[in-house]
Amino acid sequence: MEEMNIGQAAAAGGVSAKMIRHYEAIGLLSPARRTPAGYRVYRHHDVHNLRFIRQARRLGFSIEQIRQLLGLWQNQRRTSRKVKELAMQHIEALDERIRELQKIRQALAHLARHCQGDERPDCPILDGLAKGDV
Questions:
Q1: Domain membership of residue 37 as a residue range
Q2: Which residue from 11, 16, 109, 132 has the least number of CB within 10 angstroms?
Q3: pTM of the model
């Protein structure tokens, strides 16, 4: 099986070497085997895990959720029910965040509509931020 150094594993997994070290430090990725000189050595299995982590992060899963998903992915005796539960919980959280962002957008758009954007110093946007109306 071909072995890779951290730079090669990072490139193959689509993450930075710094992120690999971080994932190892927090236990999301198993610590790499070390050469006698102390260099990290990775295998294709590690790259598959890195790609999985990268994709889960792109979808907005938290580190703890990714930890759970990795455990489920690696457990061949799992049921899909738990995976779906995690996904549905994440969708609910995303929906709530979208609602919050829409409210923020509406408030900012309201302030921007009332700003003349001219040479005068008064600005409803700054006034709204200062008053905490946003």
A1: 1-78
A2: 132
A3: 0.81
